[in-house]
Design brief:
- This protein is mainly alpha-helical.
- The chain is 65% helix and 0% strand.
- The longest helix is centred in the middle third of the chain and has 13 residues.
- It has one domain.
- It starts with 6 loop residues before the first helix and ends in a 12-residue tail after the last helix.
- Helix 4 packs antiparallel against helix 5.
């Protein structure tokens, strides 16, 4: 059986990748939050937590790059005016 490749699945996968190289605690906590989010707007609200954890581990510039890399994955889910890079 093929895995679910819907845009929401891909969005969740990309968000988990943002914290893939953070500590086990951060990665596990954020992964749970990402998969418990009910919709794309809930996922959008998790970006600040993702940014915070990556900035602590990899610096603000890297956090900014990773969070901005998610914008394209939100394109089908949120109004274009909301998709502003950091």
């Amino acid at each position: 059986m093929e895995p679910d490749r819907s845009p929401m699945w891909l969005l969740r996968k990309e968000m988990v990748e943002v914290v893939a190289d953070c500590s086990d605690d951060v990665r596990n906590r954020m992964t749970r939050s990402i998969y418990r989010a009910g919709d794309a707007f809930d996922l959008w609200l998790l970006r600040s937590d993702l940014f915070h954890h990556v900035a602590q581990n990899k610096g603000q510039q890297e956090a900014k790059r990773r969070i901005n890399g998610l914008l394209a994955f939100f394109a089908n889910w949120l109004p274009k005016k909301q998709l502003i890079p950091l």
